Amino acid sequence: MTEADLYLSYKGMLLPKAVHTPESLRHFEEFAFRSDDVVIVTYPKSGTTWMQEIVPLVLSGGDPASVETLHNWDRVPWLEETRAPVLNLEDRPSPRMFTTHFHHDMMPASFFTAKPKVIYVMRNPKDVFTSFFHYHGMVSFLVDPNPQSEFLHKFLDGKVIFGTWFDHVKSWLSVDERQRILHISYEDRIVCAQQDLKDAVRKIAQFLEKPLDAEAIERIAHRCLFKNMKKNKMSNYSLVPLDIMDQTKSEFFRKGVVGDWKNQLTVAEAEYFDAVYKEKMKDVKYTFPWD
Ligand code: A3P
């Protein structure tokens, strides 16, 4: 199926019709934030699911109840998606947790007055592309990413869902409110050793003003390791029917590593990617771990 069959256009951004409707988008626009809400913001494939595990664990002081009983999409729901209007989010007790893939300037009016806390997760765009490519290959409501070279051009031109990675990252990096926005990268924090993960948990707990003892930090970090999260049925999308997500083609928890783009892009594709990156990011004064 083509983009026209599968996607709608919202404020110049393509979105999958299967999970975004005029009603869910209206609900998003009218959503009333509270100042003690926590919002996870990502470009897709940048570590959203990881953060949807870690934030509830941090806020509950390490109690695994919510990550063991609630799907990640209900636990930390996407505000722009069709589930949001049916979850009675208005009635949830504080601190509420949400996710969005939208740009900063697309946030509803209440976001700018209530000023909730934001955790913005970034990942090397070449690894994002790689993960995105495999994800598109297994999800029935997204376009077929083949041939790869064509999909790469679409990705770099923003003719994919949620627009370009460049616009997304620039939009959220332009917000310089340290008290309120934590910028964190997949490469710094997630992948490798448990020590990195403990540092990440500590940093997130500090940002969310939730004091945790060493034992709780250790427990949360252990749960959020790739190999452990991959086993959590409430986070690994294994309960999504095969005709929507065919994980026999590619698992949602695919590799969870840094630098897999080297196995995905040809030398010419990587060089082209670097040239576009250089041009689009030339005015950005931020040191990314992959630079
Ligand atoms: P790969 O496809 O490269 O393996 P998102 O949650 O934003 O959709 O991102 C999904 C990507 O994050 C996938 O990347 C997935 O494997 C990876 N991921 C999810 N949880 C992770 C974790 N705890 N540690 C490392 N990577 C994780």
TrEMBL record:
Q: Which GO terms describe its biological process?
A: catecholamine metabolic process; xenobiotic metabolic process
Query: Which ranges carry the Sulfotransferase domain?
Result: 36-284
E.C. number: 2.8.2.-
Could you tell me which Pfam families the record lists for this protein? Sulfotransfer_1 (PF00685)
Q: What is its main location?
A: cytoplasm
Q: What class of enzyme is it?
A: transferase
Can the keyword Phosphoprotein be found in this entry's annotation?
no
Q: Name one GO molecular function term.
A: sulfotransferase activity
**What are the entry keywords?**
Catecholamine metabolism, Cytoplasm, Transferase
Subcellular location field:
Cytoplasm
Gene3D superfamilies, alphabetized: P-loop containing nucleotide triphosphate hydrolases
The record's similarity note reads: Belongs to the sulfotransferase 1 family.
This chain belongs to the protein called Sulfotransferase
Q: Which organism is it from?
A: Kryptolebias marmoratus
